[in-house]
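Regression test case RT-17, inverse folding.

Input:
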């Protein structure tokens, strides 16, 4: 039985997020999938997993819908099921940036993994990790800066404090799958900064190079039972208890434990 993890997102108007979420729940159950899906008026963000044929079936159904054609899919083979259930939630935003009116529409800032590798060697590039501190501690791109934010909504204040220092440079940002950078890039462009965001995020980069370990140092936190993967996108065996050692992250530890309530593979 081949197990597959798929992650994707799309900023596209959703006329009736509640009805769409209900349809997704039914399809996920029918296909025996697990996963976490967020639906909002601005679009959807999803991480799903299950038998490969079932994953591909839902992907095909989604891509046949208006606004969802050619979804950028990021695939990763799994040794066990990453999710215990299929959860679909309706939210105000699929990613909460904390700045009103910002949309994920800065498509001209995307750079390929190949171009990203070049930027890592460019002295006029500032590489910013657009994730939380615990994720940075676990793994990062070489030369990356940790903004030190505890929550994504804290990121704008960090940018404001360093904007003057970054003038004339390329601010290269990355996150796990790319979605955080969509809104951040659009907002930073409006602040007069030259921005480059890694298309598809870390997951796409690891899938693009056999020698990704030359650039990716450590592990990548994933928000499912696997907890973390290495530069070859393989589950590492790292536990949630090893990741969340700061007492301030106790709620994150509790959330990670809820992903695997039975401990079953």
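Golden output:
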């Amino acid at each position: 039985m081949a197990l597959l993890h798929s992650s994707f997102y799309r900023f596209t108007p959703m006329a009736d997020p509640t009805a769409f979420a209900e349809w997704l729940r039914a399809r996920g159950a029918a296909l025996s999938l697990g996963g976490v899906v967020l639906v909002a008026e601005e679009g959807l963000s999803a991480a799903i997993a299950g038998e490969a044929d079932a994953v591909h079936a839902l992907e095909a159904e989604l891509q046949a819908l208006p606004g969802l054609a050619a979804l950028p899919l990021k695939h990763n083979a799994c040794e066990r099921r990453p999710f215990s259930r299929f959860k679909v939630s309706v939210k105000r935003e699929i990613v909460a940036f904390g700045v009103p009116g910002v949309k994920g529409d800065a498509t001209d800032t995307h750079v390929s993994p190949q171009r990203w590798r070049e930027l890592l060697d460019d002295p006029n590039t500032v590489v910013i990790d657009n994730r939380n501190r615990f994720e940075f501690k676990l793994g990062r791109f070489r030369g990356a800066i940790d903004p030190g934010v505890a929550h994504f909504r804290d990121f704008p204040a960090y940018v404001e404090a360093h904007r003057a220092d970054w003038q004339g440079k390329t601010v290269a940002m990355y996150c796990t799958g790319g979605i955080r950078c969509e809104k951040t890039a659009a907002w930073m462009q409006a602040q007069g900064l030259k921005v480059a965001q890694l298309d598809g995020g870390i997951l796409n980069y690891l899938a693009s190079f056999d020698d990704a370990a030359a650039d990716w140092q450590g592990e990548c936190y994933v928000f499912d039972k696997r907890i973390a993967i290495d530069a070859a996108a393989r589950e590492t065996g790292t536990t949630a208890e090893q990741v969340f050692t700061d007492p301030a992250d106790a709620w994150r530890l509790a959330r990670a434990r809820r992903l695997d309530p039975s401990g079953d593979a």
